[in-house]
What we know:
Two copies of one chain form a homodimer.
Chain A: H1 7-14, H2 18-25, H3 33-45, H4 52-59, E1 64-69, H5 75-90, E2 94-99, H6 104-115, E3 121-124, H7 128-133, H8 137-144, E4 149-152, E5 162-166, H9 168-181, E6 187-191, H10 197-212, E7 222-224, H11 232-241, E8 246-249, H12 252-264, E9 274-278, H13 282-286, E10 292-295, H14 298-314, E11 325-328, E12 331-333
Parallel strand pairs in A: 1-2, 1-3, 3-4, 4-5, 5-11, 6-7, 6-8, 8-9, 9-10
Antiparallel strand pairs in A: 10-12
Helix pairs in contact in A: 1-2, 2-3, 5-14, 9-10, 11-12
Chain A binds a DNA duplex through residues 6-8, 16-20, 22-23, 26, 29-32, 35, 50-51, 53-60, 117.
Amino acid sequence: MAQKLTLKKIAQELKVSISTVSKALRDSHEISVETRTKIQEYAKRYNFKPNNIALSLKNQKTKKIGVIIPEIVHHFFATVISGVERVANEKGYQVIICLSGESFDKEVVNMDMLANGSIDGFVMSLSKETMERQDFHHLREVTNQGMPIVMFDRVADDIACDKIIIDDVEAANKATDFLLRKNRRNLGLISTPDYVNVGRLRTQGFKEALMKRGYEIDESAILKVEDIENCGDKIKDFLAAGNYDGLLAVNELFAVTASKALQGMGKKVPDDVAIIAFTDGMLSKYASPTLTTIGQKGEEMGGLAAAKLIQKLESDHQEDETYETVIVKTSLIERESTP
Amino acid sequence: MAQKLTLKKIAQELKVSISTVSKALRDSHEISVETRTKIQEYAKRYNFKPNNIALSLKNQKTKKIGVIIPEIVHHFFATVISGVERVANEKGYQVIICLSGESFDKEVVNMDMLANGSIDGFVMSLSKETMERQDFHHLREVTNQGMPIVMFDRVADDIACDKIIIDDVEAANKATDFLLRKNRRNLGLISTPDYVNVGRLRTQGFKEALMKRGYEIDESAILKVEDIENCGDKIKDFLAAGNYDGLLAVNELFAVTASKALQGMGKKVPDDVAIIAFTDGMLSKYASPTLTTIGQKGEEMGGLAAAKLIQKLESDHQEDETYETVIVKTSLIERESTP
DNA sequence: TTATGTTAAGAAACCGTTTTCGTAATGTAA
DNA sequence: TTACATTACGAAAACGGTTTCTTAACATAA
């Protein structure tokens, strides 16, 4: 079990000082060619790699970015991470992941831990509980220390930082309009409570599309599901109560649950009811019928978030006190659930 | 932008030495009660938190564990991470994730980076390319340095380390037997190439179940899919060529693809063809019909791996040179795709 | 009074790097 | 010979903590 090689050990072995070794390895001309090659060869032979922790301490930067998300067992978040990781690695950064599990307290604890020197900046999406409480003191604490944050998807409007979002209002608007153009008149929406900003915005887009065409809005045609795990019965009741010929769902889980419920009730998708879902994940691609979706481009959002963060980190210094909100274009992916 | 508070700054402010501050904050009786409370109050008021990097350097441990997996956009791996994260956090550890993207080189680079002081130990599942090459020098290098590894799912038999696996042979065996007991006689298997050990082992279990009952093995009833992304046509051809009444698939993607293909060919699932899939993920739960699966218990495997690793890390020292292979019990989850 | 003990604090070493500064041994020009 | 450069290296500080070793001041016992 050969213990890790350090500058000190090399110095002792070759009977030179630590500084000489360090300089030689960085090819400093202060060191004679002879000594330099001797040291470099030794280092190569015994596979010397400088200790990251020591470098971090010295340089006051870790080359790591912290990602805090509510859940990882969630196709959208998994794709985001994938994008963050890709860009981060390209630029020589590593990714530390913490899950809030939709809990405010865990989000705070995780941020505190990471903020204490473990990382250079954050990429994050807020937990439901945080959105509900509207308590963002932990975010402020971090930004006050001069540590940059890039938020995506579930963002806090009144925190000054870069943000990567999709235009939820417009996307819902377009999807709704798509259904209307297919001559669906009795539309239902399956959404989340309003404190989840994406739920609120998508609901807004849904309403706007209807109003634009002069239809009036029936609040009973909008279902707000609290408990995503046990949404089955709620959705069934909702569908039984209305006579919808078109449905918009804010995620694919709601959509496929609705689709199955409808088929169980003897209705045909898309003939009787057309369905569009947010989030273009596995379920949409493999459900029967396959679902028309609004692609959220998680990969792309993650990549943009990481790129933005790293740019901030490497910009000469926080003179760059302007923040940007990037809106990623969504796209409607047509499949079997719309005619 | 209040710069981060350090011991040094507190010391200057309160006109004492750094050591006094450090001791006071750790409640040392070497410091008078008076001085101690003064310092503690100051630290609390200005929210002092010791710098993680400095602690890591001093203690020669980071309280971080590195996870290297092939992909994160993969329900099974996502659940494993979720389990790792849960247990790690409970024990005060954080999780650094790197993705190999099924590439040998990326796996090596990531391990090298992490091994240089960034983490205390690894939890990992090998990339396909690594399994194919059977080149494990990077694993050996790490273990030789005294850094523990726990492997799960895709493991290398000849590396000495703890392993968490499911009994793939037995699980496939049981699933096959289940189909046979339902009077299915013409069974097909959709698997991966043999260098992926889980594919090989599940194939073995499938064969053993048939032989045990005296059926002979028809190699043409076994499909080995290389390219998981574009498996559709291969599977369609395979199903068209045989007249199966029962199918075992080594993952749910293959299973749901097969199910849809069969239904497209006018066959009924499960009446004409029964299907069982490995990996109990989203697809199985929401496909039509829902799929009977073999649950791989990713959460549990991740949790066990993290617990094992941390136990190794905190055991008084590598006197504990024995390695364990934990076999996680699978369970057959019956749904609509089997009668 | 002297020897010994106790208390409360600071100095310094250490973890593994990088980097600035200092300097002995040369070489070169006046 | 003296003064100044250059070369090639080492010493030391710094990053931010923890911990061991020292020490000054005072208290107590012989």
